[in-house]
Amino acid sequence: MFFPNIGMTTPAEPTQGEVDYAWAFFNLMRKGDLQVFSRATKDGAGNWVPRRYPEMDIPLGTPTEVAAEQSPNLWRRHFTGAIAYVNLGDGPVNVTLPAAGAPYRNSRGQTVASPLTLASFSGLTVYKAAMAPTAPSAPIVR
Amino acid sequence: MRSVLAAVLVITVVTTVHAQTRPGGKFGFSYPNFAAGAMTPEQFVTDFAALMHNPSAFNGWITAGKDPRRLNPGGIYLKHINVRSRQASQPSTAIEGRPTLAQVQAVNPSWILKDAVGNPVILFGIPGEYMLDFGNSAYLDWIVNTWMPTQLFDGLENAPGTVTWFMHDVGSFVRMYTNCALSDAACNRYNTDEGVISAWEALLAKFKARWPNKKIVINSGPLSYVPVADQMAVFQRVFVKTDGYYGETLTNNGAYWDTRPNPEKRLALLTTMQLAS
């Protein structure tokens, strides 16, 4: 199994930007049924209290490719319902989102415009219109 | 009757697996706290496919009748263990699943590694973190045959044939830099990468041979200063004997190498990408 965690080594919860980056990075790699994403969520006193977060409830669909380096240090992976982008480059990049699937949204349901600007060492999973957070869909099937 | 029972069992398993697979995939949580106001264990196991926590937490859940492993037998609920080093501040195995000083001294004090002047070898510079001769065959025999069933395992883990999961901490596979006495073979073993790696292999082989139904994952992570291919050769050598990888970070955020130059960060991240696959 592959069980990486985020937010374990810092007192505060990870920022949304850190979650977006980690979630996209995880989605680049995920394969099979024994890979789990783990994000520390904490209460006001710093206790590690589990709670659900939006990424848990939005389907990605099935992957249609393995992670691909779209341009130097810009990684991408298409799913039927989403696209994960990760920028491991030294500077920001502008990513033109495919027309098919627009309008794209982030995990909080906010519209993501094209081109998407990704800072150095950041990432985002954009969800296609058909996969809006309230749209019913099957879980990931591989 | 037998076929009906089989059908019921199949339906139960399918329902359990489905319940912990969220639309976004499978999710885990480490060190969950089920204090008042937080998610209950019953709620937790419907949302989270995996967890990791210390033996003391499992003991509390067992006492309360809310052991996640029993609430959801399909979950991957890992118990923290560490037989590589003992921590002076931990007098009980229940704290982090480690052998205690008293337990080791009662059997063979020489399993606590010493440097050239007789001081305990400290792992990673952590005060009180005394390194054990964890590749020693006699030590491992005691660990898997005596210590685990009498000091570590709970009732579920001691039930014959039960599949339970463990997370072994301190998954570093690089050499130590201890000032060992020249004649101290045990100490000097861990001053080579090969000595450390072969110790892990010995530990995992003994564990799997004695407890074939138990699963073990290793808490590890990539390095930012070793070529990807070289790291992967070591990871493949060790992880092939395990049931998986556990990491306290995923990206550079929160990693000790986050302050390193970008090429080093990329190296570690590209290693992680290969490791996951």
Spell out the helices and strands of chain B N to C.
HEEHEHHEEHHEHHEHHEHEH
Question: Which residues of chain B sit in consecutive blocks of at least 5 with pLDDT less than 50?
Answer: 1-18
The overall strand count of chain B is: 9
Please tell me how large the radius of gyration of chain B is.
20 Å
Helical amount of chain B: 40-55%
The percentage helix of chain A is under 10%
Number of DSSP strand runs of chain A = 10
Question: Which whole number gives the mean pLDDT of chain B?
Answer: 92
Count of helical regions of chain B: 12
**Looking at the structure, what is the overall shape of chain B?**
globular
User: Which chains make the largest contact?
Assistant: A-B, 53 and 50 residues
How are helices and strands ordered from N to C of chain A?
EHEEEEEEEEE
Contiguous low-pLDDT stretches of chain A (5 residues minimum) are 135-142
Q: Report the mean per-residue pLDDT of chain A as an integer.
A: 91
* Largest sheet strand order of chain B: 1-2-3-4-7-8-9
Structural class of chain B: alpha/beta
